[in-house]
Amino acid sequence: MKKFILLTLPCFIFASYNAQINPITPNIKERMIKGNSYRAGCPVSLNSLRYITLTYVGLDGKEHRGELIVNKAVAKDIVSIFKELYNIKYPIKKMRLVSDYHGNDFASIEADNTSAFNCRFVDGTRKWSNHSYGRAIDINPIENPYVSKSGHISHKASFKYANRLPYKGVVTQKVVNIFKKHGWKWGGSWRCCKDYQHFDKK
Q1: 201 near 184, Cβ under 8 Å?
Q2: Residue 177 near residue 119 (C-beta atoms within 8 A)
Q3: CB 92 within 8 Å of CB 114
Q4: Using one digit for the tens of pLDDT, what is the confidence trace for 163-172?
Q5: Residues 36, 67, 116, 24, CA torsion sign
Q6: Sorting pLDDT into bands at 50, 70 and 90, what band is 8?
Q7: What are residue 136's DSSP bridge partners?
Q8: Is the pLDDT of residue 6 over 70?
Q9: Quick check: is 4 in a domain?
């Protein structure tokens, strides 16, 4: 007689907030490979990554279900951080795997998509981005653009957000403090440039 082992995976429920952390399943692996966000030579193995689904408040004020892939070392951080963001009703446009945009960071940003893992280099270099390790996340990238030292912004829809007025979806100090409490750093505090969407934990 065959014996079956029931594998219980972590499930976190806080009021209406719900988040689950799971290993990378064959289906998710297929999405990542076909979506060009993971390939041979990436600096982390799939075993080092976790697939998270969680509840968030959308820009429309309604609850939505999002998905992220992050390093297993920071998976619990992300669950806790997004619980706090949910509790303060910080709004997020959408949250899909970057694989849905063929691993194209520009396309994901144009869709105002909040995402984490993506096996790619830092733009203009051969250095792995922290996204390649699953230790970085970009939030509402249209409302929180990357601004170069010269003031250049690549996405037209982001132009009006460069002044950092409190538009819906703009990263506030309260959001920064939530990430900071969990040991994450904000790209909006960089000296070389400003990456207002970006948080990472090295």
Answers
A1: yes
A2: no
A3: yes
A4: 999 999 999 9
A5: negative
A6: very low
A7: 200
A8: no
A9: no
